[in-house]
Design goal:
Elements: E1 2-5, E2 11-14, H1 20-31, E3 34-40, H2 46-57, E4 61-64, E5 69-74, E6 86-87, H3 92-102, E7 108-112, H4 123-131, E8 135-138, E9 146-149, E10 158-160, H5 166-176, E11 182-187, H6 194-201, E12 206-211, E13 214-220, E14 229-231, H7 236-248, E15 253-260, H8 267-274, E16 278-287, E17 290-298, E18 306-307, H9 319-327, E19 332-336, H10 348-358, E20 362-366, E21 369-373, E22 380-384, H11 390-400, E23 405-409, H12 422-428, E24 432-435
Helix pairs in contact: 1-2, 1-6, 2-3, 3-5, 4-5, 7-9, 7-11, 9-10, 9-11
The protein binds shikimate-3-phosphate (S3P).
Length: 436
C-alpha cells in the first residue's frame, strides 16, 4: 500500500531519469546502425527494457556498463526473425516504433503486450504500413496480439495522418528507411520530433518543413545510419510531477537539471507559467542535438486558464498532472481537444475525472475535454484507482502532498514503467509518501 500525505515543503535537488522517448529511440537507432553506439543517461525503466529485449531478439547486442550502455547494431534491414514473441509489456512506443522499423524487412514477428496495451488501437500504424507492403494478422479491432510479415518489396508512401502522433510518424519514417525512393509523412501539428532529430544526428537526411497541409517530413530510403555517442537529457514529462508538487506545496523550492527543453515537449511549462508559476531557467545549452536547461521551481499562487488546443501535442502526456495543478488554482482550467488521452495507458480523461471527483474537486468532462474548477482547499482523503496507469498513479501521489487528507492508491507498481526512482526522489526532498 502507498499513502501520500500533507507535506510541509519540498526543498532540494532532484535527480531526474533520462527522457523516455529519446531512450527508446537511442536503442532502436543504435541497432539500426552498424557498429557501436554509446548511450549515456539512458532511462532504466520497464518500458525501455522492453525495447532493449526486443532489439536483442532482432539481433542487436546490448551491454550495460557502469556509466553507459553500448548497442552493437545490425544496420537498416538487418533484422533477424525473432525466435519468440516480442513482448512490449505496457509500452506503446516499443510496439509501434518496432512494428514500423521491421515492416519493410521480409521477416515475421509476433507482437504481444499487457492487458492495457492489448486494448490500444494499432490500426493507426497498420494502415500506412500495409500500404508499404507489410501484412498483419491482428485480433479483433486491430488489437494485439499481432503477427506482422514484413514486405519483400517495400514501397515508399506519402501518408497524410489524420491523428497527431509521434508514434505513427516514427513508425512510417523508420519503415521508409528500408524502401527504395522517398517516404513522406504529413502531420497537421508538429508532434515530438526526436525521431527526425536523432535520424539527422545519425547522419540520415530528413527534410522537415511547414507546408499548406501542416508539417511534412521526407526521407530517402537506403541511407545508412552512422553509430554515435548519445547523451540523453532528462525527461520533461517526469519532471512535470516535481514541478507540480513544488507549485502546490507551500514554501517549496526545488532544482531540476539537464531538462529536455525541445519545443515539441515544452507545452506544459508554457501552460503553468501562464497560470502564474514561478519558474527560473538557467544554463541553456544543447546536448546531442536537444536543447536543455536547469530549472528552479517555487510554490506559486496559480490561476486557471484555457489551454490552447494548438498546444495539445507538445504536452500530451502532461494533462493528468495539469488537472491536479488546476485543482489548486483559482477559477477554471479548461482543457479541450484531448481525445487522444482516451487511448493512452488508460482512458486518462475518465481515470483523472473519477479520482478528482473522489477528492472533492468539481469537474466536467466528455470524450475530448476536461474542465477542472480549482478549490481553496482540496479535501483528498480517497482511495484512488490508477487503472494501472503510471501517470495517473504519480499524479495522485502529487495531489496527496497538498490535500487536507491523505491519498491512497490501489496500486503503484505501474510507476516502474517510466520512473522507478519516483518515490525515493520525492522522499529525498521532503514528500510525505509512505509505503507499507
Ligand atoms: C511518444 C509519443 C506520444 C506519447 C508517448 C510517447 C513517443 O504518443 O504519448 O508517451 O515516444 O513517440 P503518441 O505519439 O501516440 O501521441
Amino acid at each position: 500500500m502507498i499513502t501520500s500525505s500533507k507535506t510541509n515543503s519540498l526543498q532540494g535537488n532532484i535527480i531526474l531519469p533520462g527522457d523516455k522517448s529519446i531512450s527508446h529511440r537511442a536503442i532502436i537507432f543504435g541497432a539500426l546502425s552498424i557498429g557501436k553506439t554509446v548511450i549515456e543517461g539512458l532511462l532504466e525503466s520497464e518500458d525501455i527494457y522492453r525495447t532493449i529485449k526486443a532489439m536483442e531478439k532482432f539481433g542487436a547486442r546490448i551491454i550495460k556498463n557502469k556509466n553507459n550502455w553500448e548497442v552493437y547494431g545490425f544496420g537498416v534491414g538487418g533484422f533477424s526473425s525473432p525466435e519468440n514473441v516480442i513482448d512490449c509489456g505496457n509500452s506503446g512506443t516499443t510496439c509501434r516504433l518496432l512494428m514500423g522499423a521491421i515492416s519493410t524487412t521480409p521477416i515475421k514477428a509476433v507482437f504481444v503486450g499487457d492487458p492495457s496495451l492489448s486494448k490500444r488501437p494499432m490500426d493507426r500504424i497498420i494502415e500506412p504500413l500495409e500500404r508499404m507492403g507489410a501484412s498483419f494478422i491482428a485480433r479483433e479491432n486491430s488489437f494485439l496480439p499481432i503477427t506482422i510479415t514484413g514486405a519483400k518489396e517495400p514501397l515508399p508512401i506519402r501518408f497524410e495522418s489524420k491523428i497527431d502522433s509521434a508514434q505513427i510518424k516514427s513508425a512510417v519514417l523508420l519503415a521508409g528507411l528500408n524502401c527504395r525512393g522517398e517516404t513522406t509523412y504529413i502531420e497537421k501539428s508538429l508532434t515530438r520530433n526526436h525521431t527526425e532529430n536523432m535520424l539527422s544526428d545519425f547522419g540520415v537526411k530528413v527534410d522537415s518543413k511547414f507546408s499548406s497541409k501542416g508539417f511534412s517530413h521526407k526521407l530517402l530510403g537506403f541511407q545508412e545510419l552512422t553509430p554515435k555517442k548519445i547523451v540523453v537529457p532528462t525527461d520533461p514529462s517526469s519532471a512535470a510531477f516535481f514541478i507540480a508538487s513544488a507549485l502546490i506545496v507551500k514554501d517549496s523550492s526545488i532544482n531540476l537539471y539537464n531538462l529536455c527543453m525541445n519545443h515539441t515537449r515544452s507545452g506544459f511549462l508554457e501552460t503553468v507559467k501562464e497560470m502564474g508559476a514561478k519558474i527560473e531557467l538557467s544554463n541553456n545549452r544543447t546536448i546531442s542535438g536537444e536543447l536543455v536547461a536547469d530549472l528552479t521551481v517555487c510554490f506559486s499562487k496559480l490561476k486557471g486558464i484555457e489551454v490552447p488546443i494548438s498546444r495539445v501535442p507538445s504536452m500530451i502526456d502532461e494533462y493528468p498532472i495539469l488537472s491536479i495543478i488546476a485543482s489548486f488554482a483559482t477559477g477554471k482550467t479548461i482543457m479541450r481537444g484531448i481525445k487522444e488521452l482516451t487511448v493512452k495507458e488508460s482512458n486518462r480523461i475518465v481515470s483523472m475525472a473519477k479520482g478528482l471527483k473522489q477528492c472533492g474537486i468539481e469537474i466536467e468532462y466528455g470524450d475530448d475535454f476536461l474542465i477542472v474548477s480549482g478549490q481553496k482547499k482540496v479535501t483528498g482523503g480517497a482511495k484512488i484507482r490508477t487503472f494501472g496507469d503510471h501517470r495517473v498513479a504519480m499524479s495522485f501521489l502529487c495531489l496527496g502532498q497538498a490535500s487536507e487528507k491523505p491519498i491512497i492508491l490501489d496500486e503503484y507498481s505501474s510507476i516502474n514503467t517510466s520512473f522507478p526512482t519516483f518515490i525515493n526522489e520525492f522522499r529525498k526532498v521532503g514528500a510525505n509518501i509512505m509505503q507499507n
